[in-house]
Specification:
Elements: E1 2-7, H1 12-24, E2 27-33, E3 47-50, H2 56-65, E4 70-73, H3 80-85, H4 87-107, E5 112-118, H5 141-159, E6 164-170, E7 172-174, H6 192-200, E8 207-210, E9 222-223, E10 225-227, H7 228-244, E11 248-252, E12 258-259, H8 260-271, E13 277-280, E14 289-290, H9 295-300, H10 310-330
Parallel strand pairs: 1-2, 1-4, 2-3, 4-5, 5-6, 6-11, 7-10, 8-13, 9-14
Antiparallel strand pairs: 9-12
The protein binds uridine-5'-diphosphate.
Residues 80, 172, 190-192, 195, 207-210, 221, 223, 260, 283, 286 line the site of uridine-5'-diphosphate (UDP).
């Protein structure tokens, strides 16, 4: 059995990784989560330690009292517009807390670090699809806070021979567990597919399209939407990968994108609901297009996507939202 520490394991992506680690049956799982956006019910396997990563002394005690083989680090603030308004929250929560974790890993000999990064490190990407070697140039503090964490990881790995990392740069994560057990629970959602699902259910009066004058075929932003369980699976493969390979960076996406209007059409189709859509100004910090080149993860890590299907992504997101809606009614 391998001992795996998962920070942010009660959150959206973290909980899907914990689920897959538990189903794989050869991992002892410890979750650290402050439950600020995560949910205890989402942790289907392992033990939860409810703690905030900013409490360095308490986090160090956890490292002292356990011998972890690897860490998968999710806990972070992730909302682009919020990062523009409150950048210091992002540098503290993301870059500083990650740096502390890396420091503890080096000190306590936790030699494998899987890091949640983001396509936002590319900013207005110089080439589409985006390769891992494409120049990074974040255009918002969220992307910069992650890129700075990447740099700390790289420097730590150069300085400390045993320490290795896999950086996974996520494109747009969406959808939910196909069995409906877990999904994205954070109430003040800003991400398109969740917002669309909430609009279908009448929780919002309408959906805003943030900008229809981008340099894209229909004028709306294009993103590479990846199902959360395909993304989660990449983390388990990354753990294996580090057994016999050196540190590396991988894009996580399907290699093709959909515009906001296309996503809306699919959500309308799978829900059978023609909800109201309003064109609104662009959001600060939004790029026109982000699509991955995913050849590296397909070829080097043997990752095989199973849910590359926007209808399935929208349907699982909507099913999950319905479940949350019913829970609210019961309460
Ligand atoms: N978007 C939109 N309306 C919304 C939420 C998002 O038009 O209510 C657009 C956003 O401008 C971007 C795309 O949908 O072009 C994806 O945004 P999201 O917030 O889901 O993820 P991001 O790419 O910002 O991480």
């Amino acid at each position: 059995m391998k001992n795996i520490l998962v920070t942010g394991g009660a959150g959206y992506i973290g909980s899907h990784v914990v689920k897959q680690l538990g189903e794989a049956k050869n991992y002892n799982i410890t979750v650290i989560d402050n439950l600020s956006t995560g949910n205890n019910d989402a942790i289907l396997y392992g033990n939860l330690i409810q703690e905030d990563l900013s409490d360095f002394d308490k986090i160090e005690k956890i490292f002292k009292n356990n011998k972890f083989d690897a860490i998968i680090h999710f806990a972070a603030s992730i909302v682009v517009p919020e990062s523009v308004e409150n950048p210091l929250k992002y540098y503290l929560n993301n870059t500083i807390n990650t740096t502390n974790l890396i420091n503890l890993c080096v000190k306590y000999n936790v030699n494998k670090f899987i890091f949640s990064s983001t396509a936002a490190v590319y900013g207005d990407a110089k080439e589409i699809p985006v390769k891992e070697t494409t120049e990074t140039n974040p255009i918002n503090p969220y992307g910069m806070s992650k890129l700075m964490s990447e740099k700390v990881l790289k420097d730590a790995a150069i300085a400390h021979d045993n320490f290795k990392f896999v950086i996974l740069r996520y494109f747009n994560v969406a959808g939910a567990d196909v069995k409906g057990r877990i999904g994205q629970s954070f109430p003040n959602a800003t991400h398109l597919i969740k917002v669309a699902a909430q609009t279908v259910l009448g929780q919002r009066d309408h959906l805003n399209i943030f900008g229809d004058d981008f340099d894209t075929p229909d004028g709306t932003g294009i993103r590479d939407y990846i199902h959360v369980d395909d993304l989660a699976n990449a983390h388990l493969i990354a753990l294996e990968y580090l057994e016999n390979n050196d540190s590396d960076i991988f894009n996580c996406g399907y290699g093709h994108g959909f515009s906001v209007k296309e996503v809306i059409d699919v959500m309308k189709k799978v829900s059978g609901n023609d909800f109201k859509v309003v064109t609104a100004p662009r959001r600060a910090g939004d790029s026109a297009q982000l699509i991955s080149n995913n050849q590296k993860i397909l070829n080097k890590m043997n990752w095989t996507p199973r849910y590359d299907d926007l209808e399935l992504i929208c349907k699982t997101a909507l099913d999950w939202e319905r479940k949350l809606d019913l829970k609210k009614e019961v309460v």
